[in-house]
Write a structure and sequence with these properties.
The protein has one domain: Response regulator (Rossmann fold, 3-Layer(aba) Sandwich), CATH 3.40.50.2300. Helices cover 37% and strands 15% of the residues. It is built from 4 helices and 4 strands. The chain has a 4-stranded parallel beta sheet with strand order 2-1-3-4, sandwiched between helices. Helix 1 crosses helix 2 and helix 3 crosses helix 4.
């Protein structure tokens, strides 16, 4: 899969909850939880471009709340909790930050770019990603 296709897939998954909901908010909010902006700058640019291609433009009908762990995994739980407290519509995160996001919420959809969700024990199966052994003990916010 080429990088551009991957970005479009992530954007589609991140915006799916927006179109699936019965009630539409005027401005959608995406929580973006990642390790550090430096090496991921091209991905962030492609993410924004993919969003605009689907009709979501930052500052017009979309806000993106960026949170960077600065490569300190111990910061991820606090930053994930902050995004949940801000009531974002979806959380997009890197592979290392997904556990923190999953621990912070059981109601906000989480989209992550790399990793094996079944192998990491995040979901029981790809066919039923909402069910996992870990979700039964996750706190709900």
């Amino acid at each position: 899969m080429r990088r551009r296709e991957l970005v479009k897939l992530v954007v589609a998954a991140a915006t799916w909850p927006f179109s699936a909901g019965a009630q539409q908010k005027a401005i959608r909010v995406i929580g973006f939880l990642w390790s550090s902006p430096g090496p991921w700058t091209p991905f962030v640019a492609e993410f924004r471009e993919g969003l605009s291609e689907t009709g979501y433009v930052e500052g017009q009908n979309l806000t993106v709340e960026y949170r960077w762990t600065e490569d300190r995994e111990d910061r991820a739980p606090l930053l994930a909790a902050d995004l949940v407290d801000r009531k974002v519509d979806v959380i997009v995160c890197g592979g290392r930050e997904v556990r923190a996001a999953k621990s912070a919420t059981s109601t906000i959809p989480i989209v992550f770019v790399h990793g094996d969700p079944v192998g990491q024990g995040l979901v029981a199966s790809l066919a039923r990603p909402a069910t996992s052994q870990a979700s039964a003990s996750s706190p709900s916010r």
